[in-house]
Amino acid sequence: MPTFAANDSLEDISEFVKGLPYADALSPSHIRLATYDGKIYGVPALPDASIIAYNTDLFAKAGLDPKKAPASLKEIAEDAKKIHALGDETYGFYFVANSGSWLIYDFLPHLWAANSDILSEDGRTATVDTPAFRATVAAYRDMWAAGAIHPTSRSGNGNNAVEAFASGRSASS
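^ thats the sequence. predicted structure below, dont judge the formating
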C-alpha cells in the first residue's frame, strides 16, 4: 500500500472513511496498514485471524500438558520436537511453505508477537535483518532439521493443511 500511495497511484479516501457511521468499528490494524502519510487509501474487506491449532492427544502422548497451549515460538519448537520423538510418522508442526499468503498468516504473527515487523514504520524500508526475524527463521529451520515439521509443508499449497492436522499425525497447524 505505501508504495502505491507514495507514487500517487491511489485515491485518498480519508474523508469518506471517517464519515462512515461505523468508522470507529473498522479494524484499527487494517486501517493502519491502509494509511500512508496520514491519509487513508483503503478499508478492510475481510478481516481474518491467524491461529495455531494443536492436537491435545499428541501433546498428552508426548508428556506435554494438553491443557496448556504453547505460548511462544520457542515453546512451539520445543513441543514439536517432543511430539516428533513419538515416531517418524508423527510431526509436531505444520505450515504451508509453498504459499505466500499462508506464510503471511503463519510466519508474520511470530514477528509481530516479538514487537517486530518486516517493514519500517513508513513502509519504505525492509526490516528483515532483525533479531526477531533471525530467531523466527532459526526456530522454523530447527524444527525442519529435527524432522518435526510435516514433510508436505515444503511443497504443499494449503489444500492439505487440514488433512495433515486432522490425521492425528501432526500436532499443530
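The helical segments are 2-6, 14-19, 28-33, 56-61, 73-84, 100-113, 131-145, 161-166.
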